[in-house]
Amino acid sequence: MVHEAADVPGGPRSLDTVGVQFNEERLISDAGLVIAATLAERLGVEELVNESIWLPYRTPGAALPGRKVMTLVHGMLAGVDSIDDMNLLRAGSTQVILGHRVMAPSTLGTFLRAFTFGHVRQLDRVLDVAFARAWEAGAGPGELPLVVDLDSFIGEVHGYEKQGAGYG
């Protein structure tokens, strides 16, 4: 059975109103994403990215950076490891539970190619503000210290024009 967009009327008004039932295997490929999508919606991550990422006006892929970043984040959470695999989020009714339209892999590639090292720093600000919002919402440990260990990926880069890489 293939589900069309018409099968699901318009999606929920808020992700807080979504109830997940595991009664059909093919409706939503990664239903666990609803938790991450709800958290991102409550923290206002998409809007925060739209306010923080500044690509020049005529740069291809510059429009709707929040929606593109959310698509990339949800794809990574679903185990996607390449731009082409981002189509996973476009299967069935998955994008209905994400709270945003899932962007096409080619659009995401164009968006990422426009990034410089400065844009990565802008995303660092998004992370800082999102953590602060989560903390204010009660995600912190109260009076106890909190240690967040984020391991970055270290990968080989190619080309002399690669920003942020001294050699490699």
Question: Can you walk me through this structure?
Answer:
Helix 2 (about 45-50) packs across helix 3 and helix 2 (about 45-50) runs antiparallel to helix 6. With about 170 residues, the protein is an all-alpha fold. It contains six helices and no strands. The longest helix has 23 residues, at about 115-140. It is globular, with a radius of gyration of 18 Å.
Describe the largest sheet: none
Rg over CA atoms: 18 Å
- One letter per element, helices H and strands E, the order comes to HHHHHH
The gross shape turns out to be globular
Residue stretches low in confidence (pLDDT < 50, at least 5 long) are none
- Care to count the β-strands? 0
Beta-strand share of residues: under 5%
The percentage helix is 40-55%
Spatial gap, N to C terminus: 48 Å
- Oligomeric state: single chain
In round numbers, the mean pLDDT is 80
Structural class: mainly alpha
Instruction: Tally the helices.
Output: 6
Short description:
The protein is mainly alpha-helical. It has six helices and no strands.
Topology (SSEs and partners):
Blueprint: H1 33-43, H2 45-52, H3 65-77, H4 94-98, H5 105-113, H6 117-139
Helix pairs in contact: 2-3, 2-6
List keywords for this structure.
168 residues, mainly alpha, 6 helices
